[in-house]
């Protein structure tokens, strides 16, 4: 076999291996993407498989936050700029920044009745965050 043919085969095999590695990396990253579903996305694509742990995100609808009779479980509605919404229930202690009108990401799973049971709540804030102790209303100003 001539040197030119050997280089061509080597280049071809290297190209195939590189494409296979890139394809495997792309598939692994796509399956493990850590994105959250918005109400609009769920309305368009439907709910994920029942029992699968996912993240949902949006804003807590003002006036939707309620508590169970024993006060341990909170229920609220997650909204976005569309007409769709997600009913969420959470048992536990919510983060300090959690309140109506604020951004939220909930981690959990959907039930058969299309409600979302969260096991963890992550509150989002804007870049103007100030601790409670330094806010003007806390200081008396």
TrEMBL record:
Residues forming coiled coils: none
Domain of life: Bacteria
Side of membrane Cytoplasmic, spans: 1-7
One Pfam family here: CcmE
Residues annotated as binding heme: 125, 129
Molecular functions (GO terms): heme binding; metal ion binding
UniProt topology in membrane: Single-pass type II membrane protein
Primary location recorded for the protein, binned into one broad class: membrane
InterPro entries found in the cross-reference section: CcmE (IPR004329), CcmE-like_sf (IPR036127), NA-bd_OB-fold (IPR012340)
Ranges in the topological domain labelled Extracellular: 29-141
Locations listed in the record: Cell membrane; Membrane
GO-annotated cellular components: plasma membrane
Keywords: Cell membrane, Cytochrome c-type biogenesis, Heme, Iron, Membrane, Metal-binding, Signal-anchor, Transmembrane, Transmembrane helix
Swiss-Prot/TrEMBL GO biological process terms: cytochrome complex assembly; protein-heme linkage
Role: Heme chaperone required for the biogenesis of c-type cytochromes. Transiently binds heme delivered by CcmC and transfers the heme to apo-cytochromes in a process facilitated by CcmF and CcmH.
Protein family: Belongs to the CcmE/CycJ family.
Protein name per Swiss-Prot or TrEMBL: Cytochrome c-type biogenesis protein CcmE
UniProt source species: Hyphomonas adhaerens MHS-3
